[in-house]
Design brief:
By secondary structure, the protein is mainly α. The chain has 2 domains: 1-84, Orthogonal Bundle (Rna Polymerase Sigma Factor, Chain: A); 92-163, Winged helix-like DNA-binding domain superfamily/Winged helix DNA-binding domain (Arc Repressor Mutant, subunit A). 76% of the residues lie in helices and 0% in strands. The protein has helices spanning 4-29, 32-49, 56-76, 78-81, 88-91, 99-110, 113-124, 129-136, 140-158.
Length: 163
């Protein structure tokens, strides 16, 4: 059982990175409820294992990798393989979004996983190319190429110049 100090550290980690972990899970699972469950699983893993991170960069990298692994495991399950994908944008309240932003978000979530995750980590979460490559276990040149291709796909789909 974790001690109160570990609980406090895990709670702080959750407060700081819950949205980050959820967004990665959502990009994989495309279902808000399942993404919430996967994010909760990742934070439970932190709590149960008592992992301590020396700095925020290590924490973000570990959480991203753990979330990716958890989601991939969920996607391997038989019941997930035989389910029709749900329209993610219809399940998220987006009343404040402009039609241009909504079309960009639709295009991002429609990207194949190999383009979507590098783009989200780099452009949305603010990781450098080097950090994104380390998290995804790819070469930096591969990450740069995938980000460029993702942006090009989004430009073609939406007509928006900056993605």
């Amino acid at each position: 059982m974790p001690d109160p100090e570990q609980n406090a550290a895990a709670e702080e980690l959750y407060r700081k990175y819950a949205n980050f972990v959820y967004s990665i899970a959502l990009s994989y699972l495309k279902n808000p409820a399942e993404a919430e469950d996967a994010a909760a699983d990742v934070f439970m893993q932190v709590l149960e294992s008592g992992i301590a991170f020396p700095d925020s960069t290590k924490a973000r990298a570990w959480l991203a990798a753990a979330t990716r692994n958890r989601c991939k495991n969920l996607l391997k399950q038989w019941q997930r393989k035989n389910r029709a994908p749900e329209e993610i944008m219809e399940q998220i309240p987006v009343s404040d979004l402009t039609s241009e932003l909504r079309s960009v978000m639709d295009a991002i979530f429609a990207l194949p996983e190999k383009y979507r995750l590098p783009l989200l980590l780099f452009a949305v979460e603010g990781y450098s190319v080097h950090e994104t490559a380390a998290i995804l276990k790819l070469n930096e040149s591969t990450v740069r190429t995938r980000i460029a291709r993702a942006r090009e796909i989004i430009r073609k789909e939406t007509g928006v110049e900056q993605a």
